[in-house]
Amino acid sequence: MYLGEVIGTVVASAKTPGLEGAKLLLVQPLNEDRKPAGAKQVAVDTVQAGVGDFVYLVGSREAALACQPTFVPVDAAIVGIVDDLERTVGAS
Amino acid sequence: MKVCRVIGNVVATAHHPSYDGRKLMLVRPEGPRGETVGDAFLAVDNVQAGPDDRVLVLTEGNGVRQILGKEVGPIRSLIVGIVDDIDVPEPRA
Questions:
Q1: Chain A: closest CA distance from residue B30 (Å)
Q2: Could you list the residue range(s) of the whole structural domain that residue B34 is in?
Q3: Which residues of A48-60 are buried (b: 16+ CB within 10 A; e: fewer)?
């Protein structure tokens, strides 16, 4: 699982079966210092996140397990909205 | 599994039901001598780990479900041990 910031919404009217009704958001993955880490990606939202939210995601097959029904064709899912990230070691 | 250092905690009120009641921690991969060897990521705690602990992190979803139960969905990383010591002998000259 990893941290990210929601930076936009994605609208796709033609979708592969299984993705109907899925809310897609554009996410910038973040490192422990909340700095961008890696390429932006599209993730399915399961927690009613919005643009500007600091979130955490799960990738790969586990992303599909976050959805109802499972086994939908996704590879990243937003599974939590971060209220507070407490750094106990090496805070900058 | 990866050897990591616990470097923080995550508080998230809005979360997927699979995370109900679970402690989510920020961990950073470390080499045998404490050097950072990768980017930090999040893991659910299963062993009552604390701040600055060196821990063993399982990062494979099927293994995680074997421990937490197969109804648990979107959890991919789980802290499964607290490392007491790692011994790496110096290579012979």
A1: 13
A2: 2-82
A3: ebeeebbbbbbbe
Whether residues B40 and A32 touch (CB distance < 8 A) is answered with yes
DSSP code, position B67: H
Instruction: Check B12 against A46: CB less than 8 A apart.
Output: no
CATH number at residue B36: 2.40.50.220
Mean pLDDT of chain B: 92
In chain A, what are the domain boundaries?
Answer: 2-81
Residue B87 lies in a domain: no
**Residues A44, B19, A49, A72: what is their CA dihedral angle, to the nearest 10 degrees?**
10
Residue in chain B lying closest to A76 (CA): B74
Q: Residue B25 half-sphere exposure, CB side, CA atoms within 13 Å?
A: 28
Task: List the CATH code of the domain at A2-81.
Answer: 2.40.50.220
Tell me, yes or no, whether B90 lies in a domain: no
Would residue B93 count as lying in a domain? no
Residues in A closer than 8 angstroms to B22, CB to CB, are: none
- What ipTM does this complex have? 0.84
Q: How far is A26 from chain B (nearest CA, A)?
A: 18
pLDDT exceeds cutoff 60 at A92: no
